[in-house]
Amino acid sequence: xxxxxxxxxxxxxxxxxxxxxxxxxxxxxxxxxxxxxxxxxxxxxxxxxxxxxxxxxxxxxxxxxxxxxxxxxxxxxxxxxxxxxxxxxxxxxxxxxxxxxxxxxxxxxxxxxxxxxxxxxxx
Length: 123
Description:
Elements (H helix, E strand, L loop, with lengths): L1 H10 L1 E3 L13 E3 H14 L25 H18 L3 E13 L2 E12 L5
Antiparallel strand pairs: 1-2, 3-4
């Protein structure tokens, strides 16, 4: 039982993203794995330099928006994602980052799959 409490404390909680309010008017919180998933989305969705007080925060994947869809771009995408997550999300260990090209009615895109393990401690 103690381990579950420690694990919950380690995973933490934070404001939901995007911000939501509970029925009583208080800000909603994301906890545990949901908080980690939201943190990953925030890291990947933030362009370095976008946050004034933390200019290095974010991921460089936005530099690849108009890059050619080839193996070099896929490698750079995986590298940028892995580097950003290792730096900014200490609660996870990135196991694998894979990207694939997708063509659909909306156009062409690269699909990103991130496999990670939630750590038990910050070590």
